[in-house]
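Lab notebook, page 48
Experiment: co-folding of the full assembly
Goal: obtain a model of how the components sit together before planning crosslinking
Operator: M.T.
Materials (sequences as entered):
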Amino acid sequence: DGVIRFEDVHFSYDAARPILKGISFEVPAGKTVAIVGPSGAGKSTISRLLYRFYDIDRGRISIDGQDIREVTQASLRGKIGMVPQDTVLFNDTVGYNIRYGRIGASDEEVARAAEMAQIGPFIEKLPEGLNTMVGERGLKLSGGEKQRVAIARTILKAPPILILDEATSALDTATEQEIQASLDYVSKGRTTLVIAHRLSTVINADEIIVLRDGVIKERGRHDALLAQ
Ligand code: ADP
Ligand code: ADP
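Observation: model returned without errors.
Model output:
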């Protein structure tokens, strides 16, 4: 379940400048495909198109054979867990923000997800800066901490498909390794699309796609790409 397929996908934010110029790839069920390439190559655009923030100009994007334009947005997004580069939190506690991943979750489930993403101690806290209310529960979350909230939310949601967009980029090395372990745990058995800058962060991907200027330049496993 959760096969992602891009077929000859063309997309531009504005007609004068094509961003993706005929992208085709597949992420088999339960596998991990990484998209790497320089900044501006169109990597994040691919994740936004899969989540249907925008519609494509030409080609087809499907999940389990079904064109994503033919399913409701709620159904599509219910299948996809997204850990974006910049997580925007709701104006409420960390726990509330995590629970958003699955509204019906119990307090225990929320607490467990928070612990797995190493944001447990912050669960009652209000992210400061989003609030006019400055109370004792106020807390300023760093970029990395916000990312952990997004990871906890995704752990709770447990979707068949994951999009990790530079998911550990905002973290320091030690934290990155810990978080990587939770990410490996959530992505196990789920169809995963990883967006990354560096090849070194996606060693274990089943396939790596190198994107440059909106076209696929190379593809293969990590060691094969390095050997070139
Ligand atoms: P990457 O993730 O590889 O760094 P992006 O997919 O974010 O690249 O962006 C690809 C190109 O599309 C960039 O040149 C960027 O400036 C442009 N772009 C991204 N988002 C928008 C937008 N909302 N409107 C117009 N252009 C955009
Ligand atoms: P669903 O509730 O079916 O998951 P949504 O589109 O409401 O669909 O949300 C999908 C995911 O996108 C959520 O799990 C959450 O991670 C993220 N998300 C959506 N809207 C926001 C938002 N305003 N702030 C932060 N994250 C959001």
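Interpretation: Residues 13, 19, 37, 39-45 surround adenosine-5'-diphosphate (ligand 1) (CB under 6 Å).
Next step: discuss with group before ordering constructs.
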